[in-house]
Design brief:
GROEL, domain 1, GroEL, 2 domains, 12 helices
Length: 431
Amino acid sequence: MRRRRYWLLLFASELMREAGRLLERGLHPLVCIEGFQLALNVAVDHLVAYQEPLGGDIERLTSVARTSMTGTSADTGDDALASLIVEALQTVKSSEGVDHEDVRMAKRTQGNLHDTRLVDGLVLDAALTLDRLPRRLNAGTVLTLTCPLDQEDTVRETEIEVERAEQWMAFIEANDALLKKKIDAVLATGATAVFSAETIEPSIFHALTDAGCFVLGGLERAGIEDLARASGATMCDHLDDADASMLGAFTSLEIETGEGLDGRRERLCLRFGPQAGLVTLDVGGGDGAAVEETIRGLYDALRSTSLAMKSGQVVRGGGSFHMGASLAVKEAAESQAGRERLAMEAFARALENIPSTLAQNAGVDRLDTLLALRAAHRTGQKTAGIDATGTVSPIQSTWLPADTLHHALEAATETACGLLRVDQVISARGD
């Protein structure tokens, strides 16, 4: 997505630069807009004809992820992270399609980027208050609560007068009975792990722990929802409704201890198996701005790859499509007798700015490389593009989602046309 934004801005700015030259030559803004829109239709038609089906080609899908990460902090120079992204999306893919939001991100705060792993479940920061909690469970059931395991607050303020010690003891026993009722209700479900979005009373916490349960309260609502979804549990809003039918299941539970910025850091790693529909990319590295930038790069690659999986269509990169679209627009402009032809030719020149920029980034001569690429396409080498060394050659391992290019073409053209309309209105008013 970041790469899409980059070339969208690059293309839109070049369109406006070309439009400025046309306006200086006396071309009316509305004529320029009409020419740009005609050229856009030709470019989109070329995209539809040029795109290739993804099919079940995992290698090509991995190339989409790797291309998206190239030049970012997530670029490791190999396919390790790209393969993890593809594996994550393949795991959460269902009959209804694939959603990149089903892939969570977590910071491991240890090791380096090559230590990034895929967890078929969730990784949550856990502030554990009791050392007697089980550190590892191989399998079990999950109870997810959205209600507090605590004494219920009264609606009105009340006062109780105690005159004798027996009355005080009776009050304490009644209070303990209420807490025991809550404990028994939880244990009756048979849950191995209990998670709550609210507070848990210390005596209940200790009693459940003594019974062999893993207990954790004060989780965020989103975390509880993820736990319920991944485990197959039903969130319980009232303890009286809790029973065995509301339980979910996990395959393993483990508390991981490491060092964070504030000292000791504990995380809960819950695995639910590949059928859970949720996975987590546990990103290796530190806990500073560098790993945040890496996560952004991974997220962009995740979105690009999921978009390619949804549409099932990809396009060769390296400026190959842009040069082909530029030549198609130039050819279409030949049949235009009006001034719109000038705008269409300007649109074609703006498209060539993308491979020209790629050549510059590769450290080779922009003009020579652009001419070589144009000649290659004119002689029928439709897959020719600019590789990482700046050489014009057939593109085999650089792929982009077709929808990304489609949206970027439309957005850049719409932006340029919108600014031209503003210029036309201001000129008409004489401001």
